[in-house]
């Protein structure tokens, strides 16, 4: 079952939930507002896709922090992300095969929704 990470009241997240539900795809939702993100999970994401992919550099949180991206690396930004989870691109999906998909794009999402992911079960 895939896991979708984000913030429940985010408009993009709402679109993602609607699409997943419409496709009958079962998922677990990890709400950053209710459950923190553990360092090990973030380390895994950073090592696999890099901070530039994970951080929403167009978002308000990123702009308010006014960080110099030329001086950042995965290690130096990790604590900043853990303290500002809203700066993570939403949604962030971890698929059944452990691949990571960032952002909501229907065309992209249709590629990872084969029949093996479809489930008659309800989303959680």
Automatic annotation (TrEMBL):
A family per Pfam: ArsC
Cross-referenced SUPFAM superfamilies: Thioredoxin-like
InterPro entries for the chain: Arsenate_reductase-like, Thioredoxin-like_sf, Tscrpt_reg_Spx/MgsR
Highest taxon in the source lineage: Bacteria
Record-linked PROSITE patterns: ARSC
NCBIfam families: arsC_related (TIGR01617), PRK10853.1 (NF008107)
Family: Belongs to the ArsC family.
Name of this protein: Spx/MgsR family transcriptional regulator
Protein's organism: Agitococcus lubricus
